[in-house]
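User: Hi! I have a protein structure encoded as tokens and I'd like to know what sequence might fold into it. I'm fairly new to this, so please keep things simple.
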């Protein structure tokens, strides 16, 4: 039905098209792989930076808490009686706030 030259030209066109498609697929795959690598690297950098920030904030909070605890301890040692009275007052206030206001069940 088709001549040999036509079949040969069709086969050559088909081979060229397959080669072009294969080449395009490879290019797309390479781009996707490069993009994924860049995204992964960016994510690692971002997480690392945030991790460093959290670590820094945690260390700062620990230092501040230790300083506050040391100051409180010094104040208590320097003023034991007022410190005890303050602690008793705080205990009373917390007790009043947390106490159960319902009347107790009474047995008859």
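Assistant: Happy to help. Inverse folding works backwards from shape to sequence: for each of the 108 positions I chose a residue that suits the local structure. Here it is:
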């Amino acid at each position: 039905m088709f001549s040999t030259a036509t079949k040969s030209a069709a086969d050559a066109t088909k081979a060229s098209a397959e080669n072009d498609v294969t080449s395009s697929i490879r290019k797309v795959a390479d781009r996707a792989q490069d993009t994924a690598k860049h995204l992964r690297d960016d994510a690692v950098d971002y997480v690392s930076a945030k991790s460093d920030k959290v670590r820094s904030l945690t260390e700062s909070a620990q230092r501040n808490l230790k300083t506050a605890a040391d100051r409180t301890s010094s104040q208590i040692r320097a003023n034991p009686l007022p410190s005890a009275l303050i602690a008793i007052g705080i205990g009373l206030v917390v007790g009043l706030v947390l106490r159960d206001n319902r009347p107790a069940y009474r047995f008859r």
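A useful reference point when you look it over: The longest helix spans residues 4-78. Feel free to ask if any position seems puzzling.
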